[in-house]
Specification:
One of its GO terms (molecular function) is oxidoreductase activity. This protein is α/β, with parallel strands linked by helices and 412 residues long. It has ten helices and 20 strands. The strands form four sheets. Strands 4, 5, 6, 7, 14, 15, 16, 17 and 18 form a nine-stranded mixed beta sheet that branches. α1 packs parallel to α7. The two termini are 28 Å apart.
């Protein structure tokens, strides 16, 4: 039986391990933290946006970015680094800021999103939905600018069933927006989008992995680098000692780029730092039932169990996970203004995490120059959304099967 080591115990690594077990492999999972799902998967936005996959890079984004940088509570913050990787990533990002590149990547990600939705449905047979507060809530994207709203309505959309709503219809669909009706230009609603607790999903999936006789367990230790001999990976140096297997899967979030460097592989990843607030919902609160995205402000709202999760912002500040009090204060002000009666904002829990993004927002899955080293990286803010899809693709490729969707633009 072939043995695979999966490096990374976040949602991407765990789903990779699951589909490899399903394909008949023996699997060991390496996770540097003391528990799975405690980095980028811990308190992310919780939205499973299979049909709303807009890449960050688009025409007009560089100008918008300059405007955002001038705003105290703007969605973007940038700190220059003496790190060539930051500038190389930025150069590639700017090259992707065209309408044509955005449309091409969007089409690819829509196919991946549909595959992920299907694969999540298969996994739900083995993983009870209640274990991770999964809800088929639908997604409402609201717009504050008439021009931005009209442009969004006019763009080609893969879903004929999308509903274009007036401000009043947005409030009728989601009453939690009542206090914001006067500043809205309209909204677009899509059914079939879901919300869930990604961290709880990771824990539940770990339990299911442990029940498989082919699962060799979770090793808690940090990977230091690959050992290469005669054109293949012969081992993995870790703080838990040297580990060996027949094949290796790199799914370690932003740490993947440093580990890939040890094997002479450049991964075009950069950590986009995001923040989230989690606030308890009281009986008297009017929390949103559907997931909501405030488009211009780049703020996401999702009801997860008895909590309201709000996620936002992109800080390009390197591998810095400290919580910036000013950013949290700014986000809290925006949330109180938009949904003042949705939750108990006096008792919020704050979090920051690093989303490993590629310049065009497309994840990287598949082979490397080494026959026994594979990649599942670069999911950015859509790790939870795309994890099941890329994991199933990876298992097919390692097994020598054709990919279920075209992989152009999704490989190294």
């Amino acid at each position: 039986m072939q043995h695979v080591i999966v490096i990374g115990g976040g949602v991407v690594g765990l789903t990779s391990a699951w589909w490899l077990l399903e394909a008949g492999y023996a699997v060991t999972l390496l996770e540097r933290e003391n528990a799975v799902g405690t980095a980028a998967s811990y308190r992310n936005g919780g939205q499973l946006s299979y049909r709303y996959v807009a890449p960050l890079a688009d025409a007009g984004v560089p100008l918008k970015a300059l405007q955002w940088l001038m705003q105290d509570d703007g969605p973007l913050r940038f700190r220059p680094e003496a790190d060539l990787r930051q500038w190389r990533w930025l150069a590639s990002f700017l090259a992707n800021c065209t309408a044509g590149a955005n449309a091409t990547t969007t089409a690819r990600l829509l196919k991946l999103g549909e595959l992920s939705r299907k694969k999540m449905g298969e996994l739900e047979v083995a993983l009870p939905l209640d274990d991770f507060s999964w809800r088929d809530a639908g997604k409402l994207v609201v717009y504050r600018s008439r021009g931005v709203f009209d442009a969004a309505v006019g763009r080609p959309d893969s879903e004929e069933s999308r509903q274009v709503l007036s401000p009043a219809e947005c409030v009728a669909r989601e009453p939690a927006l009542a206090d914001a009706e006067g500043v809205l230009a309209g909204g677009i609603f899509n059914s079939g989008e879901a919300v869930a607790d990604c961290h709880a999903f990771c824990r539940a999936l770990e339990d299911r992995l442990a029940a498989s006789p082919r699962f060799r367990g979770v090793i808690h230790g940090a990977a230091n680098g690959f050992m290469i001999e005669n054109g293949k990976v012969t081992g993995l140096d870790t703080t838990a000692g040297k580990l060996s297997a027949d094949s290796y899967v790199l799914a370690a979030g932003i740490q993947s780029r440093t580990l890939a460097d040890s094997a002479g592989i450049y991964l075009p990843l950069y950590p986009l730092k995001g923040y989230s607030l989690t606030a308890p919902i009281r009986a008297t609160d009017r929390a949103p039932e559907v997931s909501v995205t405030d488009f211009e402000r780049k703020v996401l709202y999702a009801r997860i169990g008895d909590k309201l999760r709000v996620a936002a912002m992109v800080d390009m500040v390197g591998e810095d996970t400290t919580i910036n009090a000013r950013r949290i204060a700014g986000l809290t002000r925006q949330v109180r203004a938009t949904m003042p009666r949705a939750a108990d904002y006096d008792h919020i829990e704050t979090w920051a995490g690093l989303r490993p993004a590629t310049p065009n927002s497309a994840p990287i899955v598949g082979a490397t120059k080494y026959p026994n080293l594979w990649l599942n990286v670069g999911h950015g803010p859509l790790g939870f959304t795309f994890a099941c899809g890329t994991a199933s693709i990876l298992a097919d490729l390692i097994s020598g099967k054709p990919a279920p969707i075209p992989l152009a633009g999704l490989t190294l």
